[in-house]
Amino acid sequence: MRIAFLISIWLLSVAAIAAPGDVATLDRSTWPEKLVSPTLFDVASRAEILMFSSVLLASEALDEPAMAQRLGLRTINLESVNRVRQHLWQRLLANYNYAQQSCDQDASFCFLVEDMPTLREQAAKFQVSADSYYIKWAEPSRVFHTQYLDEQLRKAALFPQTSSEVDHFGDYERSGDGMHDRLFLLTFDSAANAAPDNTAWVTEYLRKSNMSGTFFVLGKDIQARLAEQSVSHLQATYSTQCIGVQGWEFRSHSHWQDWQDSVRRSAELVKSKLPENFVPLFRPPDGQRRSDAEGFFKAQGLQVALWDIDAQDGAGKLKGNPSAQRVLTLMLLWRHGVINFNVKQDGVKTALPWLVTQTAPVGIGWEDCQDAFR
């Protein structure tokens, strides 16, 4: 009993130390130019890439104890942190190369970047002068990218003991890394709360906008809806959209004894009732899944669908416009990828239309959900 008590106290202390910091968001009104063309999208993209690169480079000066302290953790998986850092650098270099293709049209934030050493060199000396047209953006952006980097490094520091979307366990797990430049996929999680459920509103908005998204549903939610409405009504709700599964209920699938049954039952239910919408994708709640699950998922014909851009619009986090502004900033930074919204938060009804409107003139594309993760 005494040992169990001491262990429980230790776990509580670790949880307290491991509490995450502020969720990053950036007021886009600090950026002085409206994004009204593909070229101006590139200008803002180059700026965000350089700012994040400078923050990422600075973090490498911290030794392991200092990094653990910064992230609010007792210990960190330094190998995982370094692996994620390396992946971030690779994406930043590729994205800057895309973003600088319009430098002949607008040279703002255009510097000589030919390879990784020159990107790191530019990151080391990057600064926005006090008399710059962009000065009101500079400090808020630096704060945003510092907080966002800490979000990513904290997940990396806990990986794989606490799994998340920050890294993959194998090629059966997919995110938006391989997507074309300026191409994004909208996805919607169900999360744990039962209400409000904005699925009908979101699917109707997407249809009117000639867009599609992938909705990751809980098996028990679909079962409950079928008890109240007909299959044809549910099919009409999801018409032209895609449905993957998040399991039978919203809970970690990394230590749940019945996780395989959770995935299997949900997939069978959706596939049987909504065959036109079903896509063979499983999204782990909060990104938590087992490292040894490859055989199971391949036997089930499923892929694990992760994400690159998190709206952080869950309960107690960002609401509406701040969530949308975070997503837009990350779209400028990563230039392609899978966006993750929470369909059971009312903020999505504000965030999604704002985001679609803001990005309409900038030459991006929205991936058809049936073509994603192929």
TrEMBL record:
<protein>
    <submittedName>
        <fullName>Polysaccharide deacetylase family protein</fullName>
        <ecNumber>3.-.-.-</ecNumber>
    </submittedName>
</protein>
<keyword id="KW-0479">Metal-binding</keyword>
<keyword id="KW-0732">Signal</keyword>
<keyword id="KW-0378">Hydrolase</keyword>
<feature type="signal peptide">
    <location>
        <begin position="1"/>
        <end position="18"/>
    </location>
</feature>
<dbReference type="InterPro" id="IPR050248">
    <property type="entry name" value="Polysacc_deacetylase_ArnD"/>
</dbReference>
<dbReference type="InterPro" id="IPR011330">
    <property type="entry name" value="Glyco_hydro/deAcase_b/a-brl"/>
</dbReference>
<dbReference type="InterPro" id="IPR002509">
    <property type="entry name" value="NODB_dom"/>
</dbReference>
<dbReference type="Pfam" id="PF01522">
    <property type="entry name" value="Polysacc_deac_1"/>
</dbReference>
<feature type="domain" description="NodB homology">
    <location>
        <begin position="180"/>
        <end position="303"/>
    </location>
</feature>
<dbReference type="GO" id="GO:0016787">
    <property type="term" value="F:hydrolase activity"/>
</dbReference>
